[in-house]
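To assess whether ligand presence alters the predicted conformation, the chain was also submitted together with fe (ii) ion. Input:
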Amino acid sequence: MTEDWHCHLLPGLDDGPATMDESVEMAMALQKAGFGSVYCTPHLIKGCFDADKGAVKAKLAALQARLQNENIDLRILPGREYYLDEFLFDYLKDPLPLGETKYIMLELPNHIDSEYVKEACFRIKRSGFIPMIAHPERCSLFDMPETEKTVWFRFSRSKLNHQGSKPGHPSLLEYLKDLGCAFQANLGSFAGWYGSQVQQVAGNLKNTEVYTHFGTDAHSASGVLLPTDRKLPGDP
Ligand SMILES: [Fe+2]
């Protein structure tokens, strides 16, 4: 059964579906697309989308009951998409990992300093959890200047430093990989849903085997890719 590791399926918690009916419509689309399990990962951004853990679990239970009533065979699991800012560690005093795993999904703001990302991920790992970087292909921290792309693509397996890293100092990507972080790709990135730049970065990261998990990051029924669209670059 295919798993969707990143999905805004729960109603009324973030910029995903507003109502339970919309969530059910979305669940049907996910099932039709071939997913058997979906991790529900509402945003957690202080002052913007900051429903608490209890609200997430209550919405999850209500949606699961509704899906059972309507004979929609889709397993849904709790989670969050944590925004990496100065409030993150307040929220992580009582974390909500992805289902029964130790994964903590992190959304990295584009403006954030890479050293801050390293420190935050180190702290999460030290606390016994595993950071999962949400859609790195959409984050400029993992992009690189046009002139470096070909070289980076060719030599990334041999741990070439890029992004202006000093010799002997690992890039952000290499640091996070060595730390044991997981990396989740948005399926729509490979289909160009976020533009050609993101599509190219996603292809590069896929070809260099960075990704460990995949997800729709869907916010509505129309955001669920159909099975024929979900083939990844290089797949038969
Ligand atoms: Fe998301």
